[in-house]
């Protein structure tokens, strides 16, 4: 039976998508839920899975084309793929295998005879799409222990990446080989070559928004610096116990999120946005955390961040980073937000002026922590210092409020007990 493969329903805010690349060609066998094609929107890359096992009969849209919700991309002949592996198995049965006991890879087997050793799929892997199975096998995971969010409870690549983040203490999981950009060969000595490439939709959208915000908002940036001695001491004192209890490392992001929320409570206009001639005051705190990827900067949102504990924030931010770099972030996670935090310090930036993420009216820029001599009580001491930058929309936020907000963030970080006592 022939089945049409269609563009999935796109969110209301996304009118169309660009077909980046086909993963399969006509005549190729596919398994159910195996990724057939990548579609790029203004914010994320979407994978279109095979609705059933079969053979690609026809491809109707070529690479680079613009597509809309419900458009037919290809025609799949259902069931044709199932017969081929069965015949091959009858003609050339695999050699018998002995199980090899291992605490890390319980499903691993070692073949006798002349066949090369190989690793069998982890438990439950036979129901996984090939790209997901590859991740499971590479990291020696038990698929039965990974909650599935896909159709019929199936495990997606995003589920595996999120599981890896939680398992490894929010350290970024290795990017799958198929998600890494191919390295370009070096140019010959003395060559003056040029290379022209079209912007991706995400890069084009970023460019459009950056130009738009500079022409529609009255942006101004104020600076301050923060002494992170107490935060460092607190992290050093409790990091092992924290990681053991919560399964995630205690980083700096959670401290900054908490400090910003306390400051936003005092100065609600910094958490507001402009809508025509109205100021919309948001009585909730959805904090955007800027994440850098190979495709560009994206800003997933921590919903109701004021209700999250330090461990919840660290786990969520770690999951965002891992899944964003693995191309598994969702459109819903990128929408909304009332305030944004961006950290140029991870790349070595000492000072910068961040640009607003409209319709938000303010953004906090974190920077590199650098030991510097400072004057304290008449003495010169060396302290771990960080410059902070707050860019704000001067149409609704006065300089006094912006400066006081930044001072409130500084005070909370220099005396972290304030974050627990909310004073």
General description of the model:
The protein is of the alpha+beta class and 423 residues long. The protein folds into three domains: 2-80, RNA polymerase II/Efflux pump adaptor protein, barrel-sandwich hybrid domain (OB fold (Dihydrolipoamide Acetyltransferase, E2P), Beta Barrel), CATH 2.40.50.100; 94-155, no CATH class; 202-421, Chloramphenicol acetyltransferase-like domain (Chloramphenicol Acetyltransferase), CATH 3.30.559.10. The protein has helices at 80-91, 130-138, 157-167, 201-216, 229-246, 253-266, 310-325, 399-414, 417-421, and strands at residues 2-6, 17-22, 29-30, 35-40, 45-49, 54-59, 66-67, 72-78, 97-99, 109-111, 219-227, 273-275, 278-280, 287-289, 291-293, 296-298, 301-302, 339-343, 362-366, 370-376, 379-393. A hairpin with a 2-residue loop joins strand 15 and strand 16. The longest helix is centred in the middle third of the chain and has 18 residues, at 229-246.
Keywords for this structure?
423 residues; alpha+beta; OB fold (Dihydrolipoamide Acetyltransferase, E2P); Chloramphenicol Acetyltransferase; 3 domains; seven-stranded mixed beta sheet; four-stranded antiparallel beta sheet; 9 helices; 21 strands; globular
Identify the CATH homologous superfamily of the largest domain: Chloramphenicol acetyltransferase-like domain
**Average pLDDT:** 80
Terminal-residue CA separation: 67 Å
The secondary-structure class comes to alpha+beta
Q: What are the secondary-structure elements, in order, as H or E?
A: EEEEEEEEHEEHHHEHHEEEEEEHEEEEHH
- CATH topology title of the largest domain: Chloramphenicol Acetyltransferase
* DSSP helical segment count: 9
Write down the Rg: 25 Å
> How helix-rich are the residues, as a percent range?
25-40%
**How would you name the oligomeric state of the polypeptide chains in this document?**
single chain
Low-confidence region ranges: 81-125, 169-180
The CATH architecture name of the largest domain reads 2-Layer Sandwich
Q: Report the top-level CATH class of the largest domain.
A: Alpha Beta
